[in-house]
Write a structure and sequence with these properties.
- The chain has about 400 residues and is α/β, with parallel strands linked by helices.
- It is built from 14 helices and 17 strands.
- The strands form three sheets. The chain has an eight-stranded mixed β-barrel with strand order 9-10-12-13-14-15-16-17.
- Helix 10 links the parallel strand 14 and strand 15.
- Helix 3 crosses helix 4.
- The chain is elongated, with a radius of gyration of 29 Å.
- The chain starts with a strand and ends with a helix.
- The structure holds ligand C2E and calcium ion (2 copies).
């Protein structure tokens, strides 16, 4: 937008739907102080104005006037709305606190005494929901750190069987958290949060360490049986070079048989940056571990990329397995995944197999492996070892 000298860009008391970045010219920001116009600032090229109302939805507390011919770039509210809604709760709370403080100071200054709280101040907006979210987030993070230190976390293992003879061929490590006060907390309640904060990197390495121990324990306790141990890896562990190096280091320093370690990754991770994913996966694959795509069919895999990733296994998401018996579309999807996998020489594991009917249909479809409550629930490694001895 262009403004000629002397024109108003926005006025005190108006609702504010946009912020501006000055590209050319000078803009004066002023407010009424006891009937007199007080100049608060003169802004120039590169400065931002009108941002406060955009952030906290309050009315304009100042007037902006072009001092000389000005050109501004408009930042509309929609540009910010979703980003703010998605922002980290702690960042959001701190941002709003700073805004509140700034407005407080602004009103005090106009009231004539910058040191005193002011009567001018319009109704204080409380952000109780955001504040609660921020508190929960900070607390959960600290509790998770403590959980790792105090041994509240453990990795349970769910058997993966060969459908032909129902022999256990692999175990999937699934994280479990027994909180001293709150009891068992499901991974769904803290994994997504740990992904947001980046703490998933520590959790993922912790799980990998447990999986390494499990491979060694199985080699020792059940010599002669080849059981693979798989562990879930989050996208955040691959997208950053330093994190990838830490992961590779953990694998490379493993003294046991690396071909018995398998990493499970989701499609969304691979598709968000396929080029980076392909190079990261190639490096991981060179260490000797194997790779599976988890929850296959729920993401948006491009089949073209699938061939470029050095993948060994597709895990068919349980929604298709559950839907398969009643819903023809799910059945077609399972059939298509199994046949695609066969063509690409990949193995398939059907997840969430709960009934004999599921298992029978999967055998018909020539799916080779399965995992689910029909065969076993996730359980401590010692129990599995004891039952196999
Ligand atoms: P996932 O990787 O898809 O894990 C399989 C989930 O299905 C597990 O839930 C398992 O308990 C559940 N399940 C197994 N058999 C059946 C069945 O027959 N029917 C049904 N309805 N469910 C079954 P869980 O343990 O609650 O884990 C949930 C998710 O948490 C996992 O989904 C995975 O995405 C994540 N997760 C768990 N451990 C880790 C970890 O160490 N690292 C990372 N990054 N994610 C993890
Ligand atoms: Ca998994
Ligand atoms: Ca899965």
């Amino acid at each position: 937008l262009s403004f000629s000298p002397g024109t108003t860009i926005f006025r005190e008391g108006e609702p504010g739907d946009q912020a501006y970045i000055i590209e050319r010219g000078k803009v004066e920001v002023s407010a009424l102080k006891q009937g007199q116009r007080l100049v608060l600032a003169v802004l120039e090229e590169g400065d931002v104005l009108g941002e406060m109302a955009l952030l906290d939805n309050e009315r304009r507390t100042a007037t902006a006037t072009a001092l000389e011919a000005a050109e501004v770039l408009v930042i509309p509210r929609e540009e910010l709305g979703q980003r703010l809604a998605d922002a980290d709760p702690l960042l959001k709370l701190l941002l709003r606190t700073i805004l509140d403080r700034f407005r407080e100071t602004h009103w005090a200054r106009l009231a004539g005494d910058p040191m005193q709280p002011t009567q001018h101040r319009p109704g204080r907006i409380t952000y109780s929901q955001d504040r609660q979210r921020a508190i929960d987030a900070v607390r959960l993070h600290q509790e998770l750190e403590r959980a790792v230190q105090d041994g509240q976390l453990r990795l349970d293992y769910q058997p993966i069987v060969r459908l032909g003879d129902r022999q256990i061929v692999a175990l999937e490590g699934l994280i479990r958290w027994r909180h001293p006060e709150r009891g068992e907390i499901a991974p769904g309640a803290f994994i997504p949060f740990a992904e947001e904060t980046g703490y998933i990197v520590e959790l993922g390495l912790w799980a990998l360490d447990r999986a390494r121990e499990a491979v060694l324990a199985l080699e020792r306790e059940l010599p002669g049986r080849h059981i693979v141990v798989s562990v879930n890896i989050s996208g955040a562990q691959l997208t950053d070079t330093e994190r990838l190096e830490r992961l590779l280091d953990r694998i490379n320093t493993f003294a046991g048989d690396r071909s018995r370690l398998k990493l499970e990754l989701t499609e969304s991770l691979l598709m968000s940056d396929p080029v980076l994913a392909a190079s990261s996966l190639a490096r991981i694959k060179r260490t000797g571990v194997t790779l599976a795509i988890d929850d296959f069919g729920t993401g948006y895999s491009s089949l073209g990329y699938l061939q470029r990733f050095p993948i060994d296994t597709l895990k068919i998401d349980r929604t298709f397995v559950h839907g398969m018996l009643a819903d023809p579309a799910s059945l077609k999807i399972v059939r298509a995944i199994v046949s695609l996998a066969a063509d690409l020489e990949l193995d398939t594991i059907a997840e969430g197999v709960e009934t004999e009917a599921h298992a029978a249909r999967l055998v018909e479809l020539r799916c080779r492996h399965a995992q689910g409550w029909l065969f076993a629930r996730p359980q401590p490694l010692e129990e599995i070892v004891a039952s196999l001895r």
